[in-house]
Predict the structure.
Amino acid sequence: MEQATETIFRFIEESGWLAPVFFILFHMFRQLLFIPVLLVCLIGGYLFGIVHGTVYSLIGMTIVSMSFYYIVQLFPSILPKIRKIKAKWFGDEEHSFHISQLMIIRLMPFIHFHLTSLYLVESTKSLKEYTKLSFYSLIPAAFTFTAFGHIISELPVFVAGGLVVILGVMFYLIGRKDIMLKCNEWISARFSQH
């Protein structure tokens, strides 16, 4: 995998004005080569900078998400396999995730990219709604992985573990309406005193 990634990286780097097109195609075909999203976004940040790299990664990941939507519509027989993975990560019961929770899930590089896509397929009514929510959920991951992917990948294990714990706590707290209501009441009370 490392050699294939290096070859693709050099090819994109030397392709001139077509580099963004090849980079977006790289995003689209990365799953066939088992290359993580984090690595592709890191390459985008190196080649194009934070702004352009994020935009190209967003385009590529959105196309991948839309492709997933069409694939599960055309081949519904793959859904049970993906649902098994989803049940392993999220449990068997149905969840109602907020868009901010989906953004956090997308930020966790060890959770498969298409688990969030499956949740969105099952919880949306149309391709337009699916694409919109998918795009919004991809923005933080595209930016973070492009801008800071190399830093995250070079962190010591205990620091990376700490980040995962923090993201997990945030994910849990955002989903708890009673906690969010108490926080909102506390914030309102604090600001009304001043």
